[in-house]
Amino acid sequence: LSSDGNNSYLDIFLNYSNVNYKVYVSNGLTIVEVNQKDLPEPPGPKTVYAESKGVRNYIVLSAPEEGSGVHSESESTKNNDVENKAVEVKKVEVKKHYSKTKSDVKSSVKNTVKSSVKDSASNVVSKSKKITLDLVDATLVDTVRLITENLGWNVIFAPDVMKYQEKLTMKLVNVEPEKALKMILLANGFDYKIVNEIAYVATPDKLEKFQQDIKVTGPMKTQVINLENASAREIEPIVKANFPEASVQVVEKTNSLLVKAPVKTIVDIKNLVGQLDVPPPPPPPVTPPVTEVIRLNYAQAQDVVQMMGNLVPKEALTVDQRMNSLIVTATPDIIDTVKSFVKAVDVPMPQVALRLHVLLINEGAQRALGVTWNQSVSTNLQEVKKVYDNNSGWNLQTGPSDYLGIQLFTRSMLQFQATLNYVVANGDTKILAAPYVMTQNRQQAEIQIGEQFPLIYTDYRTGQQQAQYINVGIILRITPEISPDGYVTLQLNPEVSEVGEIITGTQFPRILTRRVNNMVRVKQGETVLIGGLFREAVTDSITKIPLLGDIPIIGEFFKARSKRKDKSELMIAVTPVVLVDLPKLEKTEQYKKIEDKGLKVKDADKY
Description:
Number of helices: 13
Mean pLDDT: 70
Shape: elongated
Distance between the termini: 113 Å
C-alpha cells in the first residue's frame, strides 16, 4: 500500500460485507489478508493494480494452504532495497454488518499504512505454500534472503554470490518457495543446499566444498573473546579466513573479538585464538661486540668495503690502509660473515707477462717474417687486408687502423722468435728494444722507448735561454683481460712520435706523432704485430782516388758518385703469456724459464 494515503483500492475488500481481514506490517509494507472462502468470486489468483504518484502498487490474491487466509502483497518499483524488520501483526475484525463497520476498518487500515509503509519498494513473499513474485532490478542476495526468511531458514552465501552484481527482473505466480529459490539461483549460475535449516548458496561445483568448510554444528551463539598479548585487529582476518561461517567483529577499546557462530565453532575459534594470543618471545641475549683485525693479501681493503655494500653495518668496519687490513668491531656472527666474504674475494689476480720486440726491418725481412702489406700502403695506412703467405704457411689477420697497421700471427712465440733470430743474423733487421713487463689482469701496462728532446727558446723577460723537454719515441699502453678459455683480449694503444723539420719563423721543430687504439683477442703465447710506420733514407756516397780526387775540376774524373735509397719499417711485436701458479715451481725459476724459452703457459707440455 502506498504511503500517501491513497488507498482507494481497499474498497475491493471492504465492499464485501461478510469478510474478516488481517493486516500485516512487514519490511515496510502493509499486507492485507482475506480468506478466499468469504469472497463471492470464484477461487483463483487475482491481481489488482493501483497507481499513486507514478508508483505502481499491486495486490495478488493466491490460493492458500488449508486453514490459512489469502495473502496480499504490495510492491513499489521505485526502490528495490529490502529492509529486514520484525513482523508486526495487527488484526482488524470486521463485523458482518458492513454499514456499521466500514468506516472503522478503513480508518484502522489507513492509519496502519501511514505508520508503516516507506518510500522504498520491497518484494514480499507469503508464508503460504505458494508464492507470487514480481521483481524489477532486484539483487540476487536480497531476493534469496527474502525467500529464506519466509521459509524460516538461515542463509550463508559463498564469496562468489556476494560479488554477484547482476539485477533480476522476473515475475513468478503461484510457485512453491523452494522451487522459486531453485529457479532463481540456477538461472544465475548458482545453487543451494539445506542442512539443519541453513541454506548454503554457491556455484554447483563449489557447493559441496563450501558446505564442508562451514562446519555447522548447532545453534548460533555470541561470545566475547578477550586477548591479552596479541592485537585483536591482527587476529580478526585469521579467524575469518579459517571460520567463514562465523561473524567476527573487533572491539578496539577492550582488545577483544565479538564472535557470533555455532557453539562448536566458537570452541574452535577460542582454541585458535589461544594459540595465537601468546606473549612475544624474549629478546635474544645481547652479545658484547668484539674487535678483530682481518688482513688482506691481494685485494685492497677499501675496495672490499665497497664490495660488501649493506652486507654488514658500515660502522662496524674500519680500514687500515697502512697494513691493508679491516678492523671489524661487531658480534661474532657479523665477524664470521666478514671473514667469509673476504675469503671469497681476497684471491690473487691472474698475471700476464708481455714480451715486446721493437724492430726496424727492411723489405726483405718483412717477407721473411711473413708480413706482406698491401701495395697501396703508405705511412698513412688505412687498412691492411688479410694475407696468406704460401711459402711460410702463416695465416695473418689484419684490422683497420688510422696510422698503424696491426697483424695477428697465429704462430707461437717460439716460432716467431726463431724467424726473428734468422733475419737479425742476416742483417736485415735491427732490434731496437726488447722489454719484458708483467701486469695483472685488467691492469694497464705502459712501455716507453725513446728520448727526451730539448726545445731551446729565449725567455724575453730574463733574456736567458730556457729548455723544455718533450718525450719522443715509442709509447705503448697495453691492458690485458684474461678469459677462462685461454685467450687474452688486448687493448693496445701504441703511439710513435719523432722530431721533424724546424717550423719556419720559429725555433721549434715539428713533432710528428702517430697513434692508434685497437682491441684484439689472441690466444696466449701467440704474437700480435703492430706496424705501418715506414721510413725512407737516401744516402749519397762518393768514392775517389786520394789526392787526385781533390783536384778542382780535374778531380771529378777520379771520383765515383752513388745514391742509395733504403726503405725500412718500424714494427712492434707483442706476445701475451698467462702466468699460472705451479705448486712445485718457484717464482724465480718460472720467471727464468719464461726469459729463456719465451713463454710459460698452461699448455706448456705442448712445446
